[in-house]
Amino acid sequence: MNHNWTRRTVLAGLGAWGASYFSPSVAQGQVINLYSARHYDTDNAIYTNFTKATGIRVNLVEAKAEELIARIKAEGANSPADLIVTVDAGNLYRAQQEGILRPTQSEILTRVIPANLRDPQGHWYGLTKRARVIVYNRDKVRPQELSTYEDLANPKWKGRLIVRSSSSIYNQSLMGSIIVANGREKAEAWARGLSCQFRPPSPR
Predict the structure, then answer these.
(1) What is the pLDDT of residue 182?
(2) Does residue 132 sit within a domain?
(3) pLDDT (average), residues 141-152
(4) Are the C-beta atoms of 19 and 134 separated by less than 8 Å?
(5) Considering the domain boundaries, does residue 107 fall inside one?
(6) What one-character DSSP code corresponds to residue 118?
(7) 116 and 154 in one domain?
(8) Which residues contact 9 (CB under 8 A, 6 or more apart)?
(9) From the centroid of its chain, how far is CA 134?
(10) Please, which residues have CB within 8 angstroms of residue 69's CB and are 6 or more apart in sequence?
(11) For residues 55 and 28, is the Cβ–Cβ distance under 8 A?
(12) What is the pLDDT of residue 70?
C-alpha cells in the first residue's frame, strides 16, 4: 500500500481516512500540526478518536481560511503545519495557487474519495460536502415559485433577496458552478439579473 506522507495537504474534512492511514505501531509519540478553519464540535471528537486509534496527537490551530493560508505563507519552509483543513472548493483552489501545498498519494484516499472531489495531483482531498439551500418565508413564497438558483434572477424578486457579498468565497464558488452548468454567457446574464434584485423597487 502506498502511504507517501508529505506535509501540508489540504482537506475539506478529517477523519474518514485517519485511523487507517497511519500505522499505530509507527505513530506512537508523533504529533500532527493541524491548521483548521472549521469550527464544529464534532471535529474534536474525530481528533480524539484519531489519537486513540493511532497514538498520534493532534495539535490544533484554528483561524479563518485566509488567515491560515497567510500564516503558512509567512512561515515558509519552516512552517510546522502538516495539514490544513478548510471549507469550500474556492479556498482549496486559493491554497493551491499560493503554492503552500505539497501533493500526497494514497491508495486509501484514491479509493474512498471520488475523482471529482480530489485534486488530480493529490494537492487536496474533499471529505465532506455541504448543501447550500435557498431559505424563504412559506407565508410569502410558494415552493413552485422558487426552486433553483437560476430563479433568483427573476425580476419578481427585486428588493426581496438577502445574500452574502459577492466577495464571499461561497458566492464565488456558486458562480463557478453556474458557469459550469450553463456556460459563461448565461452565467454572466444571471449574475447581472441577480445584482439588480438588490436595488430597492421603484416607487409607484
Answers:
(1) 93
(2) no
(3) 88
(4) no
(5) yes
(6) B
(7) no
(8) 83, 84, 101, 102, 103, 104, 122, 123, 124, 125
(9) 19
(10) 84, 91, 94, 95, 98, 100
(11) yes
(12) 94
Task: List the CATH number of the domain containing 104.
Answer: 3.40.190.10
| Residue predicted with more confidence, 4 or 109 | 109
Cell of 68: 491560515
Residue that terminates a domain, selected from 125, 158, 184: 125
What band does 89 get if pLDDT is binned at 50, 70 and 90? Answer: confident
Domain enclosing residue 174, as ranges: 143-196
Question: What is the band of 71 on the pLDDT scale with cuts at 50, 70, 90?
Answer: very high
User: pLDDT tens digits for 37-68?
Assistant: 988 888 889 899 999 998 899 999 999 999 99
One-letter amino acid of 114: P
- Are 88 and 40 a contacting pair, CB within 8 Å? no
pLDDT at 11: 54
Residue 94: inside a domain, yes or no? yes
- Determine the Cα–Cα distance for residues 101 and 91; give it in Å rounded to an integer: 12
Domain boundary among 125, 159, 181: 125
**Angle between helix 169-182 and helix 184-196 axes, rounded to 10 deg:** 130
Q: How many domains does the chain have?
A: 2
Tell me if 137 is assigned to some domain. no
